[in-house]
Amino acid sequence: MTNKPIKSYRAGNLQAAIWFNERQVKDAIVGFKTASLRRSWKDKDKDIWREETLNLRKQDLPKLAVLLAKLQEDLFLNEEEEDNE
């Protein structure tokens, strides 16, 4: 049986997905959702597709959003500074 995502989104070579998982806690089965980010690319030297996946819990997403915003801010601000030099 293949576990399929509840929902997935794609932008170019990036894919984000929401998964439903179950785990036994004491005597009960507990359901919870997780997220995954996947990036795929073609290794031209070996002529094969590769991918890497990052699995996240719900509480990781706000932290990731802050980190991505900081990275974007730094990259764009530094790019503008480099253009002005």
Structural notes for this entry:
The chain has one helix at 60-84, and strands spanning 7-11, 14-25, 28-43, 48-57. The chain is an alpha+beta fold and 85 residues long. The chain has one domain (7-84). It has a four-stranded antiparallel β-sheet with strand order 1-2-3-4, with no helix packed on it. The longest helix has 25 residues, at 60-84. The radius of gyration is 18 Å and the shape is flat.
Please provide a brief summary of the model:
The chain has 85 residues and is α+β, with helices and mostly antiparallel strands. It has one helix at 60-84, and strands at residues 7-11, 14-25, 28-43, 48-57.
Biggest sheet architecture: 4 strands, antiparallel
Q: How many DSSP H or I helices? A: 1
- How helical, in percent, are the residues? 25-40%
Mean pLDDT score, rounded?
91
Per DSSP E runs of 2 or more residues, the count of β-strands stands at: 4
Order of helices and strands: EEEEH
Count of spatially separate domains: 1
Distance between the termini: 57 Å
Radius of gyration: 18 Å
- How are strands sequenced across the largest beta sheet? 1-2-3-4
Anisotropy-based shape: flat
Low-confidence stretches: none
- Helix- and strand-based class? alpha+beta
